[in-house]
Specification:
heterotrimer, A mainly alpha (about 280), B alpha/beta (about 350), C alpha/beta (about 400), A: about 280 residues, mainly alpha, MetI-like fold, 13 helices, globular, C: about 400 residues, Rossmann fold, six-stranded mixed β-sheet, four-stranded antiparallel β-sheet, about 40% helix
Chain lengths: ~280, ~350, ~400
């Protein structure tokens, strides 16, 4: 009596599998198109990042750190980047950045409009909610396999998987930001007869900006967190080095690649955080 | 700022170390328990813990051995999943008793532990396996049923790939072709890379690691479902070779000298001696288990059959194991004493 | 001229507001409706009209529905039933585009907590309405600068909102509303978030502005003194319904019921009541050429002890007599002019009671009230001055 009755059996997984195969076979044109699109962005970004001389990158990050935070931060970031380079992970870092950035850009392009939509539309919000929960809690390995089915091995499924993981925070925080624009300010805006678009662009988005920027920061950090996982489907970069190291119990290599990821994450986190601070208004 | 960095760094290293030994610390050690109650008339049998590194043939052999140990010998069994490297560490620590497939070339650590005596090699499970570069059969011969025309009718050997580089374009590196290699954790991945470079294939091909065995399988499966060309590392026996019609590209026949010359691995793989690995102490404490596993021997072909049964019938791994025992009664009879065999067969019915 | 008229306006909050209308018609009370249906009646069957250039104050305690009501007037709240007629058009029939045009050109609003945009500078805030209308940048800037000047914020245009004090913030709010040149300004408790002293300044400022601009203002407040100070007319709102509408004096003199009486209890009447509100109209016709005997008969017929004497020709007051004075005149064959007293005082009918009280000490006689052409129209007994205050 304690066991769940065996004769009741819903092969949900089979349906999903069939669905995924069906998608793979019948919509390969669509996925190839998406793949080509993502790839063209990714490759340009990769080429560009690898093309810029290393000292230019360091100088740029130093200046940026100085400007948005302070001299000390600028120097710290410089030291971190130098160390990554000295350990021999410069190119791997650039590959990682290109995947992370591409995923973040896609996340923002999709996430901000979706967030606004679900702030405006209750039904949309109700639909989005469980999907976002699923995206955040579904173990990433589960969708890595369909990602390969759709996009093949390499950076594109990595960008896809990273996007799935990093999209929710920007959607949630955008919706939250738009919803928490003060009621009176919204009324004040609407009292002057703006179109929905005018109210959105001139009042709601600027007001929501600090929170949206917090979402950008979180999204970027989530994307960084997927670096190692996405290497399991063939994405190159720092994650791949970590993967090799972990699997060969090569502590030295793992530590170096791992520290590089941490440094990169710290730099990205501090920079995006400081930028989002700049968007805050005093009430 | 500086301090936070140090903490991050320290935490990271800590996580790495914990990760590497996680399996060895989590599981209570059963052998101590047994010693405490050794004086009782009924000796409580230890639980036989199998390591599951995630590929199907290993899971099948785990299930076959587990079924026989449970039904025939009255042992409890358990399975711990993990990556092969972590599982070997777990086996060294005594948390895992047996791994039914040790691919020795891929796991040099195993050999070292055998030498030091903590682990033991219980002999061959199967040694008629194959590995190397595979392509779907339709790439060479076409598939009339699916309306696929032959794309590379003259592709026979690894070297022929030089003429077909247009067929396998690397989307991420326009103008070049791609050969999908194994996961980075497997020693064979490095061997393949060196071997193919030695053949000069890297002139036209990027030899790209697949990140994980699941990714490798999915990559092949996706190409196969779509009827697209694909070339990459694979091995037999697997469910892939049971389900999909794939062809091993020929290479020079195995020759020890050729293989070792300049460490370029310039010939086909020696059929690997896939052995059963075990924790030495556990086996010494449980001689009947050791005796059974030392006799345990199958073949790549038999394994592939069971795996195909698994895939075709959408069966559970346990069902496939029972199917295997039923199909290969004569073989199983050689592994165990008469009475154990009877018990196993009774349990099957 | 009538600018705005509200007919049977009803706003119900809840899932199916239309279904509640029948219950309201059946005479169910607000809390009964809430208990049985979980719907809140914001306002129910409200009627009033506002003249052009009038300052119309809607006064009520919190929860009385006044904010709901004012938001119906620019459709920030969509009314459930009724009509809002502005310049002969029912704005509830407007489609989206018409409603935008209406908000852009005809009506503006000032908010309790200012509702300013913290991401914009002072001038950008003021420009907002013009920006929405699509006005040219130069015009926008020029117009906003002028408007800032009229509210006394010259030189502050490039500051952030956060740099301003509360009073200045509301001046920006006011400027933002005025910059659009609206015909109607809705003010939702605009001064209640300010300090009392600043609030008083703002009252003066608003009265000054209004005397120049002559906008139609609908002003919400919970503060009785504010209402009576600013309002040409006042509507008192209670539980979503209007209890009384009238000029401040009308309400003070004839409170509709106990609720209003309580409401106006704390008010400083001497600042609101004028001479004409508390005077007794004079029907006495004593004049300087009358025979004292006839004058005495007239006085005797009334209950008055005193009578003001007017000039027969000009009808202007010339003196005041007591009955004793007239008897004296009859006995001694004197004329009225010879016995009347000249130490009376007169006040204009528009003079506030507060000022009259100060003058009252100068005479022992009642105070005469005169109209614009200095005709005698009534008198104020000294005792009734005090009575009027409680």
């Amino acid at each position: 009596m304690n066991e769940f009755p065996q004769f009741i059996n819903i092969p949900l997984g089979d349906y999903i599998k069939t669905f995924i195969s069906w998608l793979t076979v019948n919509y390969s044109g669509f996925f190839d198109g998406v793949k080509a699109g993502i790839l063209s962005v990714l490759l340009k970004m990769q080429d560009f990042l690898i093309w810029i001389p290393w000292f230019a990158v360091i100088l740029f990050i130093f200046a940026l750190g100085w400007k948005v935070k302070n001299l000390k931060s600028g120097l710290t970031f410089t030291a971190m980047l130098l160390l990554i380079g000295l350990m021999g992970y410069w190119e791997a870092m650039m590959l990682t950045i290109s995947i992370v950035l591409t995923a973040v850009v896609i996340s923002l392009l999709l996430g901000i409009p979706l967030g606004i939509l679900s702030a405006y539309n209750k039904r949309m919000d109700n639909i989005m909610r469980p999907i976002l929960d699923a995206m955040q809690t579904m173990p990433s390995f589960v969708y890595l396999i369909p990602a390969i089915m759709f996009f093949g091995l390499g950076s594109v499924p990595a960008v896809f998987a990273t996007t799935i993981y990093s999209l929710p925070p920007v959607i949630r925080l955008t919706a939250l930001a738009i919803n928490s624009v003060s009621h009176e300010m919204k009324e004040a805006a609407h009292a002057f007869g703006p179109t929905t678009w005018q109210a959105l662009v001139k009042v709601e988005i600027p007001q929501a900006m600090p929170t949206i920027m917090a979402g950008v920061n979180q999204t970027t950090m989530m994307a960084m967190a997927m670096v190692v996982v996405s290497s399991m489907i063939g994405a190159k970069g720092l994650g791949y080095s970590v993967l090799i190291a972990i699997n060969r119990t090569d502590v030295a290599m793992g530590a170096e690649a791992g520290i590089s990821i941490v440094f990169l994450a710290i730099i990205i986190d501090r920079l995006t955080q400081s930028v989002s601070e700049k968007f805050k208004y005093d009430e | 700022m500086k301090n936070t960095n140090k903490i991050w760094l320290f935490l990271f290293v800590l996580i790495l170390m914990v990760g590497a030994t996680a399996c060895s610390t989590n599981i209570p050690n059963d052998s101590e328990k047994t010693e405490e109650i050794d004086t009782e008339a009924v000796v409580e049998k230890e639980t036989v813990v199998f390591g599951d590194a995630g590929w199907d043939s290993l899971r099948l052999h785990n299930a076959i051995a587990a079924f026989i140990l449970e039904e025939g010998y009255g042992y409890e069994t358990d399975v711990i999943p993990g990556s092969s490297v972590n599982l070997i560490e777990g086996m060294v620590a005594g948390d895992i008793a047996v791994m039914m497939e040790m691919w020795q070339d891929n796991t040099p650590a195993f050999g070292e532990h055998v030498k030091s005596g903590t682990l033991m090699n219980l002999g061959t499970n199967f040694d008629d396996n194959a590995q190397g570069l595979y392509v779907p059969r339709y790439v060479i011969e076409g598939d009339a049923e699916r309306g696929i025309e032959a794309m590379a009718p003259d592709l026979k050997t690894v070297h022929d790939l030089m003429d077909y580089s247009d067929l396998f374009p690397d989307a991420e590196d326009p103008g070049r072709a791609i050969i999908v290699n194994g996961p980075p954790s497997w020693a064979v991945t490095t061997i393949m890379e060196i071997k193919l470079q030695g053949y000069g294939l890297d002139e036209k091909y990027n030899i790209v690691g697949s990140g994980s065995s699941a990714a490798l399988a999915a990559s092949l499966a996706a190409a196969y479902e779509k009827g697209q060309p694909w070339v990459g590392y694979y091995w037999e026996p697997t469910w892939i070779s049971g389900k999909y019609d794939i062809v091993l590209l020929e290479d020079a026949p195995f020759d020890e000298a050729l293989w070792n010359e300049g460490s370029k691995y310039a010939c086909e793989f020696k059929p690997e001696d896939v052995v059963i690995g075990a924790n030495t102490e556990f086996m010494q404490n449980n001689p009947e288990v050791m005796a059974f596993l030392e006799k345990y021997k199958t073949s790549s072909a038999l394994t592939a059959e069971a795996l195909a049964y698994l895939q075709d019938n959408d069966a559970e791994i346990d069902e496939a194991a029972q199917w295997f025992i039923l199909e290969n009664q004569e073989l199983v009879k050689e592994w165990v004493p008469e009475d154990v065999f009877t018990k196993v067969m009774t349990a099957l019915k | 001229m009538e600018k705005l008229r509200v007919e049977n306006l009803t706003k119900v909050f809840g899932k199916h507001p239309k279904k509640i209308l029948q219950l309201l018609e059946d005479g169910l009370k607000r809390d009964e409706i809430f208990k049985t249906t979980q719907h809140t009646v914001g306002i129910g069957n409200v009627n009033f009209s506002v003249e052009e250039g009038e300052t119309f104050v809607i006064m009520g305690l919190s929860g009385s529905g006044k904010s709901t009501l004012i938001r119906c007037l620019n459709l920030l709240n969509k009314p459930t039933a009724g009509k809002i007629i502005i310049d002969e058009e029912n704005i509830m029939d407007y489609d989206k585009k018409q409603m935008r045009e209406f908000r852009r050109n005809k009506i503006a609003m000032v908010f309790q907590h200012f509702g300013l945009f913290s991401h914009k500078t002072v001038i950008e805030n003021v420009e907002f309405g013009l920006e929405i209308k699509g006005e040219k940048k130069e015009y926008r800037y020029k117009k906003s600068l002028e408007t800032l000047k009229t509210v006394g914020l010259e030189g502050w245009e490039d500051y952030r909102i956060s740099a301003l004090s509360g009073g200045m913030k509301q001046r920006v709010g006011l400027a933002r509303a005025l910059a659009n040149d609206p015909e109607i300004i809705l003010m939702d408790e605009p001064f209640s978030a300010l300090d009392p002293l600043i609030r008083r300044d703002m009252h003066t400022e608003l009265l000054d502005l209004q005397s120049k601009l002559k906008k139609t203002i609908i002003f919400i407040t919970h503060d009785v003194n504010e209402a009576f100070k600013l309002g040409d007319r006042i509507a008192v709102l209670k539980e979503g319904e209007i209890v009384q509408i009238g000029t401040p004096e009308e309400i003070l003199e004839n409170p509709e019921n106990e609720y209003i009486r309580n409401f106006i209890q704390d008010i400083d009447r001497s600042r609101i009541l004028k001479a004409e509100n508390i005077m007794r109209k004079s029907i006495l016709k004593l004049n300087n050429s009358q025979k004292p005997k006839i004058a005495l008969e007239i006085l005797d017929d009334s209950d008055f002890q005193y009578g003001f004497v007017v000039d027969r020709e000009t009808r202007k007051i010339v003196g005041v007599v007591e009955a004793d004075d007239l008897i004296d005149a009859i006995k001694n064959k004197k004329t009225i002019e010879e016995v009347m007293h000249l130490d009376y005082i007169t006040v204009s009918k528009d003079e506030y009671v507060k000022e009259i009280i100060e003058k009252a000490y100068e005479t022992k006689y009642p105070i005469a009230v005169i109209d614009e052409s200095e005709n005698y129209i009534g008198r104020i007994q000294r005792g009734s001055l005090l009575k009027a205050l409680v």
